[in-house]
Amino acid sequence: MSDMTCSDNLSSAFEACEKGMRLTREQGLALLEEADFLTLGRLANRARFVHNPDPVVTYVVDRNINTTNICTSGCKFCAFFTPPQKGGGYVLTHSQVADKIEETKALGGTQILMQGGLHPEIGARKTAELFTFIKQNHPIKIHGLSPPEVVHMARVDGLSVKDALDLLIEAGLDSIPGGGAEILVDRVRSLVAPNKCKTDEWLEVMELAHQKGLLTTGTMMFGHVETPAERIEHLDRLRKVQDRSLPRKKGRFTAFIPWTFQPANTALDHVRKATGVEYLRVLAVSRLYLDNFDHIQASWVTQGDKIAQLALLFGADDLGSTMIEENVVKAAGASFRLSQEQMIRLARDLGLEACQRNTDYTLVQV
């Protein structure tokens, strides 16, 4: 921390925002902790239109396919996983995955978000077989896995992360979602996800993916044991990777998606659930701090439609997925649903146009 007082940091942060200058960590923290709520929203909304001048809100039609719920990670925030030694676990067959894909395509879906647990016997090779099957028989964009899964699968097969990625990409992996980021600070990860990959490993997967031309997203699950300063550190680590990735022109983070921890049915159910105001503050600061990210996505799945609509005034320009199927957040007690028609209405009520997009944010011509 510099010798400046917090008030000075806030003043300089406002000045930086007004002039379109890059925020420092100290300024980002001052905005998060001290800024007037509505002023923060105004600044973030203005930044949103700097990055995306058109009055358009985007969304994608897809489904989350959880190929297995068997997981060795044992994350304290997860209500979905089943330990390998316990009954009740499943692994989807190729036929079951195919049925879900065909239903998705029939509903106008353009991609599947495919993730599973850290299954002790499923490595990169077995996953590549599934991807090859999908591409050969039921072709669709595979927005799949997460950095912890890639690291785990590489270890199962005795491969380097680089070689595991090459194998998965050759088999049909098109892009990587930002799952498993939680908070990119090892102190926090050791408390909530001790068996998951470390911060540097998560970032390494994404940077390697960018080098190989893949698009990815960045995420943050907040509102559990992290501090406000650690939230800013998380944003800073993502911004630095994006700085290195952008000059290569192809692989990069397309969007950032923050969402709040859902404590119900988890080992952290004693944690106070973050409020909608807290969510919007983090969202707004994310838009202002991540000056090299094109898009910020609202999390209606954890916040519901009203807060998601407000998010479109606090820096977000994307409503994410229609989520034909979603299992992980639902297991933690969140039951919000939002159809394509509802997304369009939320945008139009604000004087904005809603448009379906692909994974790379090109618009779908309908």
UniProtKB/TrEMBL annotation:
Chain residues that bind S-adenosyl-L-methionine? 77, 182
Binding residue positions for [4Fe-4S] cluster:
71, 75, 78
UniProt keywords (A-Z) are: 4Fe-4S, Iron, Iron-sulfur, Menaquinone biosynthesis, Metal-binding, Oxidoreductase, S-adenosyl-L-methionine
> Which cofactors does the annotated protein need, by name?
[4Fe-4S] cluster
Extract the GO molecular function terms from the UniProt entry.
4 iron, 4 sulfur cluster binding; 7,8-didemethyl-8-hydroxy-5-deazariboflavin synthase activity; iron ion binding; oxidoreductase activity, acting on X-H and Y-H to form an X-Y bond; transferase activity, transferring alkyl or aryl (other than methyl) groups
Q: Where is the Radical SAM core domain?
A: 57-294
Q: Which InterPro entries match?
A: Aldolase_TIM, CofH/MnqC-like_C, Cyclic_DHFL_synthase_mqnC, F420, FO_synthase_su2, rSAM, rSAM_sf
Sorted alphabetically, the Gene Ontology BP terms of this entry are: menaquinone biosynthetic process
In the record, the note on similarity to other proteins reads: Belongs to the radical SAM superfamily. MqnC family.
Q: Quote the protein name from its UniProt record.
A: Cyclic dehypoxanthine futalosine synthase
Which species does the entry assign this protein to? Dethiosulfatarculus sandiegensis
Gene name of the record? mqnC
